[in-house]
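User: For a benchmark we're assembling, each entry needs the component sequences followed by a predicted structure for the full assembly. Here are entry 17's components. Please fill in the structure.
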Amino acid sequence: MQQSPIDTSYRRRLRQAVFPVAESSAPEPRRPAAVTGLILDAGPHLLVLATPDGREVRQPISDQTAVWYAGTADRTALQPGRRAIVRPTPDGSVADRVWVDIIRANGTIVARDRTTVEIDEGPHRGRTHVVIPARSLSHILVRHPHFDPGYLFDVIGVRSDSGLVAVRPGAPQPPYPADHVPKPRPVTPVPHVLAGTATWFGKLASCQQAAYPALDPSSGGCASAHGGCARLPYLSLGSELLVRNECTGRSATVPVTECGCVAARFCDRCVQCGTSPRGRIVELSPASFVDLGGDLDEGCFNVTVRVG
Amino acid sequence: MVETFQEAQLPLLACALISACVAKIAIREPSDTIGPGPLTTLRRHRPAVVTVAIVEGCLGVALLVTAHPVARLGTIVVFFVATSVVFLLRGSKADEGCGCFGGLSTTPVRFRTVLRACLFLLAALAVVAVPATGLDVIRDGTVVHAAIAIGELAVFAALSPEIGVLVARRRERIPCEHRTVPLAETFATLHASQQWRTYSPLIVTADPADMWRELCWRFLVYRGQENGEDVEIVFAVSTDERDGTVKAAIVRPDDDDSDTGPNHMYALSV
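Assistant: Structure for entry 17:
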């Protein structure tokens, strides 16, 4: 199991010195974790991956293994040199789903022409060049009626040498410009359990990470972050979130490693299982999203989040 | 009956003066609500506001404990000045409050504010020759005294826009989880706390080694030494607007290999 870039045990120990807490009496049952890596070899029954920490993982696959590569694909998509993330079945015996070279970008449109769009993913993620092939254009335009600079854009695609090749929209585009996010209604008292939407961000990586939209600006958060669509309590980099996928019932503790300043601008709802409250309250790394039972190509799941 | 009416003004005036004192000190007027004119010169300078508040508080207490004419005359002067100021503010049609109750008096001066000041001035004039003290009236007062005081309180409450502002402030109070709290406020709260006085002698570094915030608490970690042993002192400072709670704990090094020490990448210089 790889270690996340932030070791939160230090802060947890200090926090518990001031606020002692009882250990949870019902720990989450252990499930085999998602495996991320570079495809080294793929046979009819075995997928060999090189993980970022230098290990070689041999993951059994079967006819029941679902493969995604720019849509539903067969096992010919498992080509050496591509990156993949594998979700094992609950007993860990075989791969349940494999996503190949999947990547997501969301942010504010800064420039576009008919087949490409440049989006600003915030000060810590920079700009991303998205190529929209003709076969995806109509699908994406239906969900992004304001295909103009200043509006939000969210797309799931595949990694390529020319950038992100769009496959499908990550979510319907909010109808307002990115700098006109509706203000949330004040909620008092602040609920102990936050409810909303969880999405995923970035490229395939193996770390358990979360981006959270409301980081304390005085403690190393992103100071220029928008107040956000969902009114969230302030946390810091390194804070731990107990994230529960309300659609699968799976939960896990995930450290906050980034400011979700772009997620804060999306006032959308997830409808994977019922309709979530408005607003993205956490963005997960692909590994965390998959471990919690999320399907990367679907883009979101309904979530509740506790702090600590 | 007239004497009873005059005596009933003493607790009322004392209550008003002490309330004004507390409000001026506790609830600052936002600087952008104070106009530039000569009528508001004092209000732009915090020491002057505090001085006026102390004078009002002293007069309020004096009305309760003594029948000395200086207290009575001082009260008349205060309410005469207050009436004049609100009258002039009303006449200037300035879109600003009177500052009578500090940051609560931000509503533009209207007729009812002028009327309230006039009534207070009349009440101050009425008590100038009353031989009893405010405490005497509270202790020995009759049902008639109480009825008059309650009736007048209701009138003054109806004439006071500050009541609505106070209610609105309570309703709009930002929960501590959502408050943006500058580091300066956290350090001011920390350094004024008993916990800091208790543990600061153990601290060996000027700046915190680590600092982060979660919900209603900002955590600050300092390096320290106790009995020759390296320790870490953790302070948790409340981010609540009206709660200066500071909690602290000493953490000794243990053999836990998973503890990798402070997250230097997040430590800030302060």
